[in-house]
Amino acid sequence: MSKKIGKRSIKAGLPPGSLVHVGEKKNDITKITVVDYDEKDFFELKTTSIDEALSARRSAGIRWINIDGIHDTEIMKSIGGNFGFHPLVMEDILNTEQRPKIEEYDGYLYIIAKMIYFDEKLNEITTEQVSIILGKDYLITFQENKDNFFTTIIDRLSKNVSIIRKMGSDYLLYAIMDLIVDSYFLVLEKTGEKIEFTEDAMILNPNPKTLRKVHGLKREMLYMHKAVWPLREVVGALERRESYLISDTTIIYLRDVYDHIVQMMDAIETYRDILSGMLDLYLSVASNKMNEIMKFLTVVSVLFMPLTFLAGVYGMNFEHMPELKLKYGYPFLLLFMAVCFIGMLMFFRKKKWL
Amino acid sequence: MSKKIGKRSIKAGLPPGSLVHVGEKKNDITKITVVDYDEKDFFELKTTSIDEALSARRSAGIRWINIDGIHDTEIMKSIGGNFGFHPLVMEDILNTEQRPKIEEYDGYLYIIAKMIYFDEKLNEITTEQVSIILGKDYLITFQENKDNFFTTIIDRLSKNVSIIRKMGSDYLLYAIMDLIVDSYFLVLEKTGEKIEFTEDAMILNPNPKTLRKVHGLKREMLYMHKAVWPLREVVGALERRESYLISDTTIIYLRDVYDHIVQMMDAIETYRDILSGMLDLYLSVASNKMNEIMKFLTVVSVLFMPLTFLAGVYGMNFEHMPELKLKYGYPFLLLFMAVCFIGMLMFFRKKKWL
Amino acid sequence: MSKKIGKRSIKAGLPPGSLVHVGEKKNDITKITVVDYDEKDFFELKTTSIDEALSARRSAGIRWINIDGIHDTEIMKSIGGNFGFHPLVMEDILNTEQRPKIEEYDGYLYIIAKMIYFDEKLNEITTEQVSIILGKDYLITFQENKDNFFTTIIDRLSKNVSIIRKMGSDYLLYAIMDLIVDSYFLVLEKTGEKIEFTEDAMILNPNPKTLRKVHGLKREMLYMHKAVWPLREVVGALERRESYLISDTTIIYLRDVYDHIVQMMDAIETYRDILSGMLDLYLSVASNKMNEIMKFLTVVSVLFMPLTFLAGVYGMNFEHMPELKLKYGYPFLLLFMAVCFIGMLMFFRKKKWL
Amino acid sequence: MSKKIGKRSIKAGLPPGSLVHVGEKKNDITKITVVDYDEKDFFELKTTSIDEALSARRSAGIRWINIDGIHDTEIMKSIGGNFGFHPLVMEDILNTEQRPKIEEYDGYLYIIAKMIYFDEKLNEITTEQVSIILGKDYLITFQENKDNFFTTIIDRLSKNVSIIRKMGSDYLLYAIMDLIVDSYFLVLEKTGEKIEFTEDAMILNPNPKTLRKVHGLKREMLYMHKAVWPLREVVGALERRESYLISDTTIIYLRDVYDHIVQMMDAIETYRDILSGMLDLYLSVASNKMNEIMKFLTVVSVLFMPLTFLAGVYGMNFEHMPELKLKYGYPFLLLFMAVCFIGMLMFFRKKKWL
Amino acid sequence: MSKKIGKRSIKAGLPPGSLVHVGEKKNDITKITVVDYDEKDFFELKTTSIDEALSARRSAGIRWINIDGIHDTEIMKSIGGNFGFHPLVMEDILNTEQRPKIEEYDGYLYIIAKMIYFDEKLNEITTEQVSIILGKDYLITFQENKDNFFTTIIDRLSKNVSIIRKMGSDYLLYAIMDLIVDSYFLVLEKTGEKIEFTEDAMILNPNPKTLRKVHGLKREMLYMHKAVWPLREVVGALERRESYLISDTTIIYLRDVYDHIVQMMDAIETYRDILSGMLDLYLSVASNKMNEIMKFLTVVSVLFMPLTFLAGVYGMNFEHMPELKLKYGYPFLLLFMAVCFIGMLMFFRKKKWL
Questions:
Q1: Nearest to D226 among C156, C179, C270 (CB)
Q2: What is the tens place of the pLDDT at every residue in E96-147?
Q3: How far E322 CA sits from the closest chain A CA (Å)?
Q4: Interface residue of A170, A197, A318, A326 to substitute, partner B, most B CBs within 10 Å
Q5: Selected residue of D279, D297, D309, D319 to mutate for chain E interface (largest E Cβ count, 10 A)
Q6: Contact status, residue C109 vs residue C103, Cβ threshold 8 Å
Q7: Does residue C45 have a pLDDT over 60?
Q8: For the purposes of burial, counting CB atoms within 10 Å of the CB of A78, is it exposed (0-12), middle (13-18) or buried (19 or more)?
Q9: Residue A17 φ/ψ region, left for φ over 0, alpha for ψ in the -120 to 50 degree band, beta for the rest
Q10: Nearest-5° Cα angle at D139, D134 to D140
Q11: What is the largest CA-CA distance in chain A?
Q12: Of C36, C93, D141, E223, which has the maximum CB count within 10 A?
């Protein structure tokens, strides 16, 4: 999450449609997975050759091509040319610093989404751009991740005669969107636990370390918020059926995904409000502590300053100080000091400073 | 209210429509209440067997099935299959961490609402999910509570020849929504009393304990706000008659429920503003107290420091200090000290520090 | 304004349309005023009997029935039955803790509004619910106040051959709404004067008492805001001519009332901003005062601490302290102390602490 | 700007259409300027007699009547009667405490706008209400100012054969609106300069006086904001061509005025944000200064307290204090004190308090 | 960025369409570049004579005229007259203090945009107004910059047989808008780096200098926000195809520019939130530091005050003080002092002040 905006500068001035890879290169070799399936058949092909991947289909149904590693501009050009995608689409796929969005082109939908996961090594929330192109009978996914994120869906496609095999490419899109939204829930739960933990720490012992944690969590929530908001727009646009590529049956499922996102945004807002409340509480508690400290200092100062002054007076070396010669001068003074001391204590008690 | 977002993670990656119960299991046995009624007849059946519950109707009118305890996925499957509900609906009913919503399906409306009550044992506001399916001549309610929440409505159905017996299933839905909204009013009144009590305490004696109470109340109001907002959308959608299942007559009643929710939101907003104002007041008062303490410390320090210095000077042991030998040196010094003391007192009075 | 939300709890669970009086009972006897008027005639009847009030009209024009005191549910039932009002309307009239709203029913409009006045005895802003039902040739007003609020309108109806006698019942509604909005202006002016007075006090002498006043005024403005907002919706709905009961001519007059409300909301917003600015100013000034006090304490402490230390050194009783025996030791030390003192004064002056 | 809301109370309860002058009476005599012009001719008449002013036109073109001084209700009645204006329009013209608005009546448009200027004598921003009635071939302006504000427009009408002589009354309205909006720019520029000046003062020497200036400027901006907002609505309504009285050609010019207002609102928002930032900065700087002062006090106190204590110890008069008799007791103690002193200085340096 | 609003005052009262140059004069001579191109041909002409620039086209395709330096009102009049532009358009081009906007006129579109760059000399973000007029087969750009900003586009037009040569004038407009938006990205990246750098400094060592930097960055972001917002409206209006001058093909490219702006606004919002968070953090940390300092002062004061008092007591010169004569009085007192000292240390440790 360290790079907030993409290094778009390296592209400034280039003509549109220039295929330049923007972002971190996470993969060495581009791995391609091709899945052909219909209600009866299921074929899976893992390859690194784009020609092999674009070969003839082995079923009459849906073809799903998943590209792992998008830095190879040659492969990108082949795919773009083969399917006839718009140059801007290809340019956007290569730029991994995009905002989630949905665009309708002639004959296909182009969707950018962001998966999210907690990177244990970096100890921060990491995002991963997924580009999806939905055609009538095909779906192409592009990502940069080392591990194939979609294995659970491929498993579901292969193993059981489940609903997904009977449906069109739009249902596959739904399955992918659902998986992506689930990735947000996992991060949100983790952060939620951290927030509750920090809240308890804040109530028991508010210190600057906890404060810094709260600020860190607030910032994480800010990123979550910024990430979920455009995702909601994307799924909302899909669900409002703005494309003929999405069937009525799938709309109902997408509505479900949309509800999950709304629920998540609600939770994020709640967490943000809670964190803000914690900061307010911290400031109030700190100001209160300050008052306590100041009261203590004031009480002690006020108790001893007059007494020290009195002792100073009778430590003076004047030749003519009649009190010094009195027999009971000393005990009398001590008594007087004690009376002053107790009197001031009572004064402070009355003022509720003690 | 400790679990802010549902533990959706246990479902991540599962295909849609998987019936998994999400939430706390509050009931051991699933209790089913079936009420068949029309203008003339009223039959009530309490059972634990789903087959018995789904048996033939005993009146030509409305059938209301209330399910207490939704963890038994087998029973859920039977009901879903019998009425032909969409898999996603059944999945949502089992997930008790949903946001209130309304969805129209072919032939029936699916509504999720949240009842709210103050749990004396946990000393916190607790919510309880109620799922409602409204068909043309039936209504099914799902909840997880041990005590049947709807007894007052069943009483009204059984005892008097009231308006409810003459109306359709949509009016029954209204009666249930009205009951749910009333549950919010009860909690809001209780919290309102607590707020007023805390406000008085804040004005009389602002201390950190009261501050923490204010923060607690602010948070309760945050939850109330988050809970009421989607409820308003649900009732608003019903009242705008977005479904043929809702008749004109019932619309007028739903408008009334809607008004109550708007009134409640108004009260919640007012309470939130009042609580914010109380926090501001606390900070101002605390900063003011600090000023008082500092003034006091400063006054005492400034009064005694010069005097102590003077006493220190005449406590020095120089051999040649002519003042020490003066006959009236001591009383003269005391007089000078008194003059300084009174002068500074007057200075502070002029500065309004005393 | 002590009861922020109505004690709706006493109605929880009751069937809709139950006539239960919610609110304070301010009147013992229900006083009914019936006014029949057209361009030529004017008849006024004051009675306590509902039967007499519902007797035959004495003119072909408009009938206005004003009910003072709505706690008598029998009278309410008679009126509701006589005119055929919806049960929910009658229920709402009895509940004096409603939010201003407007509802169109078959053949009549139902309006809830709130008058506002400053209760000298309670020293707080008090509201008074007015329910209005507008029919084609009649208008019924319900209120709970002891003094008939509408005497000025009745006077206008009786005395002069003014425009109001020539117009329909919708114009009478306008006259009443205008009177209600005027009641807000009176309160707003009074509060405005208080705000300006408090602002001057804040600038001259910011103290906690003024601060508390500002908080009180802020809260009053909060209530004003909450009261005016729904009123604006009501008049806005009337003015947008959502009913055939409102004629084109009257629309122009209602637009005028609407403008007054918008102007009032503007003033309320301005006052709220001013009050917020005053709180900010108070905090800044308080923090500034603190700085002044601390500076003063620091200056005095830093001036006297080293001097007192020096005096302490030469008050020690070591046998071998050569300085003590010097002839000019004492005046030299005094000189040195004076130099230190002046040096530090100059240092503080340079630091702009003095 | 001392009267935030109009003293509407003096009108409470009066029937609508009562002509009562609300506001300050700035003029003794009502001065009327009548301008008749078309492409060829231009006639100007200055009079105080309303009959003369309403005499026959001297050109076939546009007639512009400008009324300076609106307190004379007789003159107002004559005009209202002569042109057949709605009673509410005449009432609004007399009430100079209106919010800018636009209203369409049968055959004419009624516009209220506010000019703004900086009153050097009162040292505050002052507003001046201008009422404009636009008919097909006439335009009437009402104001209360002593100096005719519109002389530049009359000059343009008289001297050159400019575009304004060829256009209709709607273009004259545009010229007036343009002049009014320009009056806002002049004030905004002046305030902008004051803000920049204050900002520099804030950065160089943040003191309470500057703080109070910032608060004053913040409040001026609040009034500017409140004044411009409704003006934008008025010009926006004109420009969206909601009236047949506004021609297509003039729309383009009004769009230009609208752009100027939007630009002005932008600048006002920016200024408000800058002022808020300055207040935040002040608080931060003040809190920082406090820290500096406290550090200094603490350092000095901590340096001298232990030393003073040591000196006190060896000032005690015990008979048996062996150190006092040591030959090098005194220099050794001085050395020890110096070591303590330097040690603590180093400690504070390490803590970055010095 | 020192002049926040244009010095519009110099134009107050002038009739509309007066050609007055508002803004800084950056160029001495007006340089004109004329580019005529179609798919086959490309001609470029650099001149300072407007007559030469307006001579006959040398290709059947698109003509692009770029004017560098707009202060010469004569040249402006020639162009305005030659193409028949509206007087307000010419007036707006000369006023370089405009807000970005788009206006459709009969046969051409008029667009105002702002380029942005970081001026190294002034060390601040500087904007540069670009006015664009798009006709069916021509495009005219006006700017005040010394260096031709559009050289990269002219290069693309001249060198390669790229897409831009085959497209219409609307595509050229797109290329220019893309270049302008890229200029924002460059500044945003630079500022983003500064923010991250400052954030690290804030966490390591929060001091007033860093605080001032944060305020400066906050203000830069405020300007960025204000600059991007209207640009988004302009491109949004173009992309929603509100003009027949924009073809379907170009719309897709403009959508891409729009996405970039939205992404940029997102980044700006994120930066603003981060900067706000940093200010909050600073205040919290400062208040915490204050607590630390106060604790330290209090601990030291409380430790030494009673001890100094004790020493003072035994420094008194009473004749009858039996303790002074005790053989072990002195060591006993020292022991007692040590016990007090350690006791208080333990007390502070328990209070967690040490």
A1: C270
A2: 878 888 988 888 999 999 888 887 787 778 888 899 999 999 999 998 876 6
A3: 9
A4: A318
A5: D309
A6: yes
A7: yes
A8: middle
A9: left
A10: 105
A11: 122
A12: C93
Contact E302 A300 (CB under 8 A): yes
Strands of the sheet with A62-68, listed across from one edge: A42-47, A31-37, A62-68, A138-143, A124-134, A108-119, A101-105
Name the architecture of domain E293-350: Up-down Bundle (1.20)
* CATH level 2 (architecture), domain A295-350: Up-down Bundle (1.20)
Distance of alpha carbon B290 from the chain centroid: 34
Q: What's the rounded Cα separation, in Å, for the pair D243 and D230?
A: 18
| Crossing angle (nearest 10°) for helices D248-313 and D329-350 | 160
- Residue C3's pLDDT band, with cuts at 50, 70 and 90, is very low
**What is the distance between the alpha carbons of residues E79 and B264, in angstroms, rounded to a whole number?**
64
Q: Which residues of E touch D164 (CB under 8 A)?
A: 15
Percentage of chain E beyond pLDDT 70 is 93
Residue for token pair 């001893």? A304
pTM over 0.90: no
- Sort out which chain A residues have CB atoms less than 8 A from E296's CB and list them: none
**Rounded Cα–Cα distance for residues E158 and E169 (Å):** 15
What 3 state SS string does chain C have? CCCCCCCHHHHCCCCCCCCCCECCCCCCCCEEEEEEECCCCEEEEEECCHHHHCCCCCCCCEEEEEEECCCCHHHHHHHHHHHCCCHHHHHHHHECCCCCEEEEECCEEEEEEEEEEEECCCCEEEEEEEEEEECCCEEEEEECCCCCCCHHHHHHHHCCCCHHHHCCHHHHHHHHHHHHHHHHHHHHHHHHHHHHHHHHHHHHCCCHHHHHHHHHHHHHHHHHHHHHHHHHHHHHHHHCCCCCCCCHHHHHHHHHHHHHHHHHHHHHHHHHHHHHHHHHHHHHHHHHHHHHHHHHHHHHHHHHHHHHHHHHHCCCCCCCCHHHHCCCHHHHHHHHHHHHHHHHHHHHHHCCCC
Q: Which two tokens stand for residue C289?
A: 């005062």
Q: Is the pLDDT of residue C169 over 60?
A: yes
Mutate one of D232, D317, D326, D333 to test the E interface: name it (highest E CB count within 10 A).
D317
ipTM value greater than 0.85: no
**Token couple for A307:** 């007494």
C172 by Cβ neighbours in 10 Å (0-12 / 13-18 / 19+) ranks as buried
d(CA B290, nearest CA chain A) in Å? 6
Residue numbers in D near E299 (CB within 8 A):
none
Hey, are the CB atoms on E4 and D270 less than 8 Å from each other?
Answer: yes
* CB-count burial class (<10 Å; 0-12, 13-18, 19+) for A178: buried
Question: D289 and C291 in contact by Cβ < 8 A?
Answer: yes
Cα–chain-centroid distance for residue C51?
39
**Which residues of chain D make contact with E289, given a CB cutoff of 8 A?**
291
Report the residue of chain D nearest E14, measured CA to CA.
D152
Of the candidates A298, A343, A336, the one whose C-alpha atom is nearest the C-alpha of residue A314 is A336
- Ordered by start, the domain boundaries in chain A are 8-283, 295-350
Task: Confirm or reject CATH 3.30.460.20 for domain A8-283, answering yes or no.
Answer: yes
Does B203 or D6 have the greater pLDDT score? Answer: B203
Cβ-Cβ contacts under 8 Å, A17 against chain E: 163
Contacting residues of B for C105, CB less than 8 Å apart: 252
Q: Is D101 helix (H, G, I), strand (E, B) or coil?
A: strand
Size of interface C-D (CB pairs under 8 A): 164
Q: C75: distance to nearest CA of chain D, Å?
A: 30
Vertex A224 angle, CA A250 and A89, to 5°: 55
